[in-house]
Amino acid sequence: MGKEANRLKELLESKGKTAKVKYFNLPQPPYCQLDQKARRRIAKAYQGSDAAIALSCMAGFGGIKSALPNAKVVHGMATLGTLAAYLTVKSGKMFLDKEKSTLVRFREM
User: Fold this and answer.
1) Strand (E) or helix (H) holding 89
2) Do 72 and 104 lie in a common domain?
C-alpha cells in the first residue's frame, strides 16, 4: 500500500498539487473501529488539506469520513478480500504470523 500511496502522491504533485502521505498502522485501531482519540489523530493529520484519499476497505473509508465529516474524502482502493490476522506480541512489539494468518477473498465467502 505504501507504493501506491507514493505513486498517488507523485501523480498529484506532477499536476501541481501538494500531497502528503500519512500512515495509521497498528497498534492504532482499524479505521472501521475508530475511537475519539483516533478520530482526532486523523483530523490533525488532515489539517490544511483540501481532500483525503482513503486507501482502505469501505468500512475504513466510512471511519475516515466520520473523522472528517466536513471534508472531501475519496475512496481510493477496491477491496478484494480481508485478512484474518494472527498477531503475537514479543518484547512489546507486535508481529504478524504469516503461516497462521489467512487471506480471505470476498468471492470465496
Assistant:
1) strand 87-90
2) no
